[in-house]
Amino acid sequence: MTKFERPSRRGFLQGTAIAGATLAVPTFFTRGAWAQANFCNAPKGASVVLGFNVPQTGSYADEGADELRAYQLAVKHLNGEGDGGMLNTMKPSNLKGNGILGKKVEYVTGDTQTKSDAARASARRMIEKDGVIMFGGGSSSGVAIAQQSLAQEIGVVYMCGLTHSNDTTGKDKRRYGFRHFFNAYMSGEALGPVLAEVMGKDRRAYHLTADYTWGWTQEESIKNATEALGWETAQTVRTPLGAGDFSQYLTPVLNSGADVLILNHYGNDMVNSLTQAVQFGMRDKQVNGKQFEIVVPLYSELMAEGAGEAVKGIFGTSNWDWKLTDEGTAAFTKSFGQEYGRPPSQAAHTCYVQTLLYANAAETAGTFYPPEVIKALEGFEFDGMGNGPTLYRADDHQCFKDVLVVRGKENPSSQFDLLEVYKVVPRDQVTYKADIFGGELGPYEVAGCAA
Amino acid sequence: MDAILLQVLNGLDKGGAYALIALGLTLTFGTLGVVNFAHGALFMLGAFCAVGLQEVLTLSVRVRDESITFFEAYKEEPYLVLWFGDTGAAIIDWVVPLSVLVTIPLMLLIGVAFERGLIRFFYKRPHAEQILVTFGLAIVIQELIKAGFGANPIPISAPEIARGSADIGAMLGLSGVLTYPWWRLIYLASSLFIIGGVFAFLNLTTYGMVVRAGMADRETVQLLGINIQRRFTVVFGLAAVVAGLAGALYTPILTPNYHIGMDFLVLSFVVVVVGGMGSLGGAVLAGFLLGILQSFASLNEVKSILPGIDQIIIYLVAVVVLLARPRGLLGRRGVMEA
User: Which residues are A47's β-sheet partners?
Assistant: First the structure.
């Protein structure tokens, strides 16, 4: 008969600890696996759905249409159709042209109407009804900020479309939001030195600014950049969004003593204010013994078409231009041109690139699980996408790359040839510390679809 | 002094547009008693008469664009330029003045069709129903234009000769440099001419006299055996023409898009209310007055004391007028007064 020996106190404690650890091991190692299999809209079948939320109605509808064209092209290329576009030039790349992680890419579209509430409602429908794993698009910073905040609540990655406010990756940045497009600060840093070089350092600037987040940050950025170079700011005037007739804001400029007018306007506002400023003879004026100049810090090719002849000789900045000569730009422009008969806009370019970057991040992570995809995007260095070597900075989810200073062409050779690249400003010159605009990215793990 | 003169001029040219739209609106209300929320759409249709004419005049042949080598791109060469050279280019350059010739008959037709096809069924219905149906109509027209012409603004230029600025300072013998765009001055002159024409039609012709009599006492005029309804239909057409001309001539000032009418609609209603519902003189007076007030409220000196005043001044005046004088500046006693 075996004699049962009473265990020692030390032995009992050791045994309990080992038993506890053994029991805990499976959950410790499988907790991530469980979350990865049950995250919001985890793709179950042979396909994966992306959501493209662009302005299909309202003032930016044509820009939205161009974004949608780019998204459709990106889906085609991801699924191995067409000539592959930038899939052939992106470096490094894990994309194989067989969808994403072997799943065929499908998409749904939504209409942001360039209104924050409508954009959120449309994005929520895509997430809850259509089960999108990622959504993107939009042509306004207000819309982008509203959408990335929803992305953070729900736990679905949002790849911004065209948004230029510092706030998007500054005070309103989110872990689930990523911006490839440049921002107002970068415009200021790129444009300031060129303006000083072309127009001189003894200038007085008058700002007309669209009265919302993007306008405010652009005004601040351009003002800081030009004042640092010796310019004076005569006046900064806020104008209501969609004012239409800006003449009552333009007439005071004529007697203000300013010799440069900076139009912090975009879209229809830019078309109208620029056209009207030219009508008021501002480009023919001499003030303080100098030629009066007009500057439009953020250009859009589609809006340049709207402004017609008024853009000639006007300086501004751009995220990308189809006339660049790198292989990525050539590949994308060729694909887009063959598909749609016109070159892509910068809005189209950023949306196309964002889609490929998301797909590549999922391939790199080997999963659609958002926190892993986010980690694959954070700090990602890439090239071959039309902007030279580019960094997706982990600290604020802002892409850092060269910025283009562009000028309205005096003698355009075609309807698409309205802007010329005046200078490619290197990435180092527009890079800034991530903490200057504040904000918190927030957590990787969120409540998910239940939110 | 120069700054004040500039703002007055600016107010007058803005006021010209407000007055023209409000004039048509008040004509409709004064004659037919209909609150027409589709009036802004008529302004927009006028603008698109100019856009449409531009599309026709610039009908083009597609030519391979050799400057683009990445893909097969094409550019457009207008037939008019191909066939007639400089003369063709000059015709295209004068599209806005020429559009007046198209706008007048087209808007008259549209106005009469509106009135006969829809508005007449709502004469005896409450104002709320008139507002709903005309607002709905405005949205339908807006969407049709968007489907046809796209959502983006379509640039139209004034003729090259009128594209620069006039040196008003030199004209008036002032010392300072005072310039103002030629086309805005032309618009102001045109609006005064159109307003004068409408007043002359109503006050100096027998037809107009009957219309005014009908506006004052419809039943008595009918009892005299006059078909006042037919005249009112013509007046509705006239209101559409006035709104249309205001829109067509405004295109070089404000790049036209499909919702340009809605942008002006609320403003023009405020103008009508301030001027006095049904008062033609009131509409014109209030149009110019509010234009000038809005222009001065946008001065930095004013905005530094009252931030945001430029955006609310018109509505503020409307509130004050409605409180102090509900019938408006020149409104008839009893109209809009309890």
Answer: A104
Using alpha carbons only, how large is chain A's radius of gyration in Å? 25
**Does B76 lie at the interface with A, CB-CB under 8 angstroms?**
yes
| A371 upstream amide cis, omega within 30 of 0 | no
CB contact under 8 A, A280 and B252: no
How many Å lie between the alpha carbon of A236 and the closest alpha carbon of chain B? Answer: 9
Q: Which residues contact B76 (CB under 8 A, 6 or more apart)?
A: A415, B58, B60, B61, B62, B63
> What residue ranges in A214-314 does DSSP mark as E strands?
232-239, 260-264, 286-287, 290-291, 293-298
Residue of B42, B38, B34, B43 lying closest to B229 (CA atoms): B34
| A280 with B180: Cβ contact below 8 A | yes
Token pair in block for residue A190: 């790129």
> What percentage of chain B reaches a pLDDT higher than 90?
48
d(CA A444, CA A431) in angstroms, rounded, equals 25
| Continuous segment of H or E residues that includes residue B136 | helix B127-149
Q: Is the Cβ of A248 closer than 8 Å to some Cβ of chain B?
A: yes
Query: d(Cα A258, Cα B310) in Å, to the nearest integer?
Result: 22
Backbone angles phi, psi at A210, to 5 degrees: -65, 130
Q: Residue A399: left (phi > 0), alpha (psi -120 to 50), or beta? A: beta
Q: Residue A21 above 60 pLDDT?
A: no
In A161-259, at which residue ranges do the beta strands (DSSP E only) sit? 177-178, 204-210, 232-239
Instruction: State the ipTM, two decimals.
Output: 0.79
Round to whole Å and give the CA distance between A380 and A230.
37
How many Å apart are CA B99 and CA A169, to the nearest integer?
48
Say if residues A89 and A373 touch (Cβ distance below 8 Å): no
Each domain of chain B, given as residue ranges in start order, spans 2-58+100-324
> pLDDT for A219-236, tens place per residue?
999 999 999 999 999 999
Q: Tell me the pLDDT tens digit for each residue of B92-144.
A: 999 999 999 999 999 999 999 999 999 888 888 888 898 999 999 999 999 99
Residue with tokens 């999963």: A367
User: CA torsion B289→B290→B295→B298, rounded to 10°?
Assistant: 140
pLDDT in tens, B63-91: 877 777 767 777 788 999 989 989 999 99
Residue A34 scores a pLDDT above 50: no
Write down how long chain B is.
338
- Is the bond leading into A412 cis (omega within 30 degrees of zero)? no
C-alpha span between A100 and A363 (Å, rounded)? 7
Pairing of strands A286-287, A290-291: antiparallel
Distance of CA A105 to the CA centre of its chain: 22
The answer regarding whether domain B2-58+100-324 maps to CATH 1.10.3470 reads yes
The residue type found at A386 is: G
Contact B298 A248 (CB under 8 A): yes
Residues in chain A, overall count? 451
Give residue B253's identity as a one-letter amino acid code: I
CA dist., res. A23 & res. A21, Å (int): 5
Structure tokens at A341: 């008969």
Taking a contact as any Cβ pair under 8 Å apart, which residues of chain B between 304 and 323 contact chain A?
A: 310-311
3-state secondary structure of A311: helix
Q: Report helix, strand or coil for A108.
A: strand
Instruction: Using the Cα atoms of residue A277, residue A279, residue A282 and residue A283 in order, give the sign of their dihedral.
Output: positive
Domains of chain A, start order: 47-182+322-401+433-450 (3.40.50.2300), 185-318 (3.40.50.2300)
